[in-house]
TrEMBL record:
Provenance organism: Dyadobacter koreensis
Keyword annotations from UniProtKB, A to Z: Carbohydrate metabolism, Cytoplasm, Hydrolase, Magnesium, Metal-binding
EC number: 3.1.3.11
Family: Belongs to the FBPase class 1 family.
Reactions accelerated catalytically: beta-D-fructose 1,6-bisphosphate + H2O = beta-D-fructose 6-phosphate + phosphate
Binding positions for Mg(2+) 2 per the UniProt entry: 118, 121, 277
GO biological process: fructose 1,6-bisphosphate metabolic process; fructose 6-phosphate metabolic process; fructose metabolic process; gluconeogenesis; sucrose biosynthetic process
Pathway connected to this protein: Carbohydrate biosynthesis; Calvin cycle
Name of the featured protein: Fructose-1,6-bisphosphatase class 1
Top-level enzyme category: hydrolase
C-alpha cells in the first residue's frame, strides 16, 4: 500500500498499475493486463451508455436473461463488449455473466484467471438516465492450466477473490477496484481517453447517516430489519435509494452509509446475486474498512453452491451494518 500511496492523484490507471506491479517483482503481469482489459471494456461501454437515447440501444430487447428478467438492449451490448474485451486480452480462460446461464469459455485455456461479472447492473434505469454500473470479481483459476475452466474455478468463495471492483457510469464515469491492498478510484477523462487516479486509498467512513433500502418492501422485512429502518427515521437519517446498486453503494462508500437488500416475500433469499454483485462489493467494502453481511454471516464467508444464487445483503459503514444486523 505504501507503493500506491507514493503515487499522486492525477496519474493514469496504466501508470498506477505498473507502479503497483513493481511492488511485486515476481508478478508476471497477467493480472495487471487483465485490469487494463477491464478498463478498456469500461471505456467501450461508457461510449455506448453515453449514446443511449440517441441510437436505438435503450429499452427492452424482447428477451429474458437467466434470471428471467427482461434484458435491455444495452445489457446485451455490454455483455458482448465485456466478453470480447476479456477474450481478446487473453488473460481470462472463462467468464460467468449475469446474462448467461453457463460459463463462457474464452478459448484462452492458458489464461490464469476467471471473471464473474454483472456487465450492466441497474440497466432498467438507462431509459431514465439514472447511473448504472458494471460489477466484476476476479479469481485465479484452480483447475490445471490449458484445461477448460470448470464450476470449481467460480465457486471458490468470496475470500478467494484476487481483485474486484465496479465501473460507475454516472455524472462522471469511474472505475473503483482493489487487488487486496486498499481501494482506489479512477475518473475517466474523455479528452484523454484515460482513467485518472482521482480517489486514492478510499476509506469507508466508520459511521454514516444515509440508509439505502426499498421501503416499498417494508412489510415483508423481518421485525429486526423493520426496527432498524424505524430507528434510522427516528434519528432523522437521510433515505437515499436510486434503484441502482453501484450508484447507491458508491455514494455510501464515499460519504458513509448502508445499503440493504434484505430477504423479501418476492425474493426470500434476497434479490442480489452472490457471485457477481455481493462478493465483489463486499470485497471493496472490507478492503476500505467497511463491512458486508447477509444478516448472519460476513458475505465473503458464505460458501457458494451455484452460479446465480442470491443473498440478502447489508453493506457499508461498519457501525451501521453492526447496528442493522443486531437490531
Ligand atoms: P428494487 C437493479 O435491478 C438491482 O439489481 C440493483 O441495481 C438495485 O439496487 C436493486 O436491484 C433495485 O431493486 O427491487 O428495489 O427495484
Amino acid at each position: 500500500i505504501e507503493q500506491e500511496l507514493a503515487l499522486p492523484v492525477g496519474v493514469t490507471l496504466d501508470r498506477f498499475i505498473m507502479h503497483s506491479q513493481s511492488a511485486f517483482p515476481y508478478a508476471t503481469g497477467e493480472l495487471s493486463q487483465l485490469l487494463r482489459d477491464i478498463a478498456l471494456a469500461g471505456k467501450i461501454i461508457n461510449r455506448e451508455v453515453n449514446k443511449a437515447g440517441l441510437i436505438d440501444v435503450t429499452g427492452a430487447n424482447g428477451t429474458e436473461n437467466v434470471q428471467g428478467e427482461n434484458q435491455q438492449k444495452l445489457d446485451i451490448i455490454a455483455n458482448i463488449r465485456f466478453i470480447r474485451a476479456l477474450k481478446n486480452g487473453g488473460e481470462v480462460c472463462a467468464i460467468l455473466s449475469e446474462e448467461d446461464e453457463d460459463i463462457i469459455h474464452t478459448g484462452n485455456d492458458h489464461g490464469k484467471y476467471v471473471v464473474a461479472m454483472d456487465p450492466l447492473d441497474g440497466s432498467s434505469n438507462i431509459d431514465v438516465n439514472v447511473s448504472i454500473g458494471t460489477i466484476f470479481s476476479i479469481y485465479r483459476r484452480i483447475t490445471p492450466i490449458d484445461s477448460p475452466a470448470t464450476i470449481d474455478d467460480f465457486l471458490q468463495g468470496g475470500r478467494k477473490q484476487v481483485a474486484a471492483g465496479y465501473i460507475l457510469y454516472g455524472s462522471s464515469t469511474m472505475l473503483v477496484y482493489s487487488t487486496g491492498d486498499g481501494v482506489n478510484g479512477f475518473t475517466y477523462d474523455h479528452s484523454l481517453g484515460e482513467f485518472i487516479l482521482s480517489h486514492k486509498n478510499i476509506v469507508s467512513p466508520e459511521n454514516g447517516v444515509i440508509y439505502s433500502v426499498n421501503e416499498g418492501n417494508y412489510n415483508s422485512y423481518t421485525t429486526s430489519t423493520q426496527n432498524y429502518i424505524t430507528n434510522c427515521k427516528r434519528k432523522s437519517y437521510s433515505a437515499r435509494y436510486i434503484g441502482s446498486l453501484v450508484g447507491d453503494f458508491h455514494r455510501n462508500l464515499l460519504k458513509g452509509g448502508i445499503y440493504l437488500y434484505p430477504a423479501t416475500a418476492k425474493d426470500p433469499k434476497g434479490k442480489l446475486r452472490l457471485l457477481y454483485e455481493c462478493y465483489p462489493l463486499a470485497f471493496i467494502a472490507e478492503k476500505s474498512g467497511g463491512r458486508a453481511s447477509d444478516g448472519f454471516r460476513e458475505i465473503l464467508d458464505i460458501v457458494p453452491s451455484n452460479f446465480h444464487q442470491r443473498s440478502p445483503i447489508y453493506v457499508g459503514s461498519t457501525a451501521m451494518v453492526d447496528e442493522a444486523i443486531k437490531a
